[in-house]
């Protein structure tokens, strides 16, 4: 009996472990691509070869996101020495070929029923010009997804976060929609920690890049409650012999992304384009005190009371400025108009001055000359006639 009981206990423990493992794999933060109902998206750049006929056989692939522009647009005129002119012309040729490939892939992808998207690789440089370069290159249709690709938080290599805010603002100015933010965990966490400074970046739908089976510990839950896409497979973790997921008709270094929804839901959400609602910051929330009895009993659930988002410095200056204006106005004397000085300025001239809206010396003189002493009841004139 003891041996039988021991075997039964071991089997129960094994079953519980398997159940927990299955539940973990079913989580959207732990290998969600293993769930057959999770939609997948491929993203590529110009040097990835695509066999569209084979790719279309994978019914889990819902969308295709292609690289569009890269940093600043090429110079319009080629100037300088022979080497500089050759380099300039080479950049223009690459730009033209890349855009032609981009347009061709968009036609093919949409013909196969795939959702289409484009991303801009953010580089140092004028963010407004980069946004214009992106929109002119991609020429997005209303149902095309747009992406700002921030590869890191080093302003010497990539667009600074301040410039990225302006990039997003310019995209919205031109087409009335916001892009999705693509970035890695470290940069996403920095943006989340500084959400009151980066008010646009922290509210963009997040395309999260991490090539590990689990992201729950690393994901910036204090700002985003979930991801729009998770880039889980790339050259970094996909090789000839091992890969988290292989897409037919694509090379091993192709980027594959998973959505936390099924295909139908992702098609409805595509192309996003709005800002997400940011929940109250965990650090800006106050736990509701527990009674001593509840605390000693154990297993008490803490309830957090939300605290209003702290005002920005500009908002505080504006409020204090308006209040100071009201306070200062309470001590001001009423404005008294200065009476023009004229020889023989009597009640007639005063009444004429009050009645006229003209203020130039010539117009005042004319008004004074035409004043009627009777209508003004001037006692000064009456005494002169006696």
Supply the CATH architecture of the largest domain: Alpha-Beta Barrel
Widest β-sheet, arrangement of strands: 1-2-3-4-5-6-7-8
- Rg from alpha-carbon coordinates: 35 Å
Number of strands: 10
| Uncertain spans | 14-26, 279-285, 377-386
Structural category is alpha/beta
Rounded mean pLDDT score: 82
Q: What overall geometry do the principal axes of the alpha carbons give? A: extended
Number of continuous helical runs: 13
- The fraction of residues assigned to DSSP E strands is 5-15%
> What is the CA–CA distance across the termini?
142 Å
Helix content: 25-40%
User: N-to-C SSE series?
Assistant: HEHEHEHEHEHEEEHEHEHHHHH
CATH class of the largest domain: Alpha Beta
Number of domains: 3
């Amino acid at each position: 009996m003891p041996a039988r009981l021991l075997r039964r206990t071991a089997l129960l423990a094994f079953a519980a472990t398997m159940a927990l493992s299955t539940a973990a794999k079913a989580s959207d933060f732990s290998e969600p691509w293993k769930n057959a109902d999770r939609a997948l998206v491929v993203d590529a750049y110009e040097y990835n070869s695509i066999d569209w006929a084979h790719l279309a056989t994978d019914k889990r692939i819902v969308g295709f996101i292609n690289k569009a522009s890269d940093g600043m647009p090429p110079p319009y005129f080629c100037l300088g020495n022979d080497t500089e002119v050759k380099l300039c012309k080479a950049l223009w040729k690459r730009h033209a070929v890349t855009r032609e490939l981009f347009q061709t892939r968009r036609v093919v992808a949409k013909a196969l029923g795939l959702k289409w998207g484009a991303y801009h690789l953010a580089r140092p440089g004028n963010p407004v010009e980069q946004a214009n370069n992106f929109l002119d290159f991609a020429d997005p249709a209303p149902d095309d997804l747009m992406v700002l690709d921030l590869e890191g938080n080093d302003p010497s290599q990539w667009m600074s976060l301040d410039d990225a805010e302006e990039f997003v603002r310019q995209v919205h100015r031109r087409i009335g929609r916001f892009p999705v933010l693509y970035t890695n965990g470290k940069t996403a966490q920095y943006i989340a920690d500084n959400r009151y400074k980066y008010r646009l970046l922290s509210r963009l739908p997040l395309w999260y890049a991490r090539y590990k089976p689990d992201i729950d510990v690393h994901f910036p839950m204090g700002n985003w409650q979930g991801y729009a896409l998770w880039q889980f497979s790339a050259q970094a973790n996909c090789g000839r012999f091992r890969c988290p997921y292989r897409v037919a008709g694509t090379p091993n270094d192709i980027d594959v992304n998973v959505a936390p929804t099924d295909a139908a839901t992702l098609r409805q959400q595509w192309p996003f384009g709005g800002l997400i609602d940011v929940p109250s910051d965990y650090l800006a929330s106050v736990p509701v005190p527990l009674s001593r009895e509840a605390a000693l009993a154990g297993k008490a659930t803490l309830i957090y009371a939300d605290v209003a988002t702290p005002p920005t410095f500009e908002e505080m200056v504006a409020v204090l400025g308006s209040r100071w204006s009201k306070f200062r106005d309470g001590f001001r004397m009423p404005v008294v108009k200065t009476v023009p000085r004229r020889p023989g300025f009597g009640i007639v001239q005063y009444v004429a001055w009050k009645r006229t809206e003209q203020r130039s010396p010539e117009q005042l003189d004319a008004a004074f000359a035409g004043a009627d002493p009777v209508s003004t009841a001037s006692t000064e004139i009456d005494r002169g006639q006696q």
